[in-house]
Amino acid sequence: MKIDKKMFRKEIIKADFEMQFNHDEKPSKSMFWKGKIFTKIK
Length: 42
Known about the structure:
mainly beta
């Protein structure tokens, strides 16, 4: 996960992420999740 430090100092999370997971039903096939986050920290 990459977090923008300047935005974090302003209490905002702005980040890009990419995660990979094991697939229990088909171990030979991996699952992934890519995305972006932009939200105010409460």
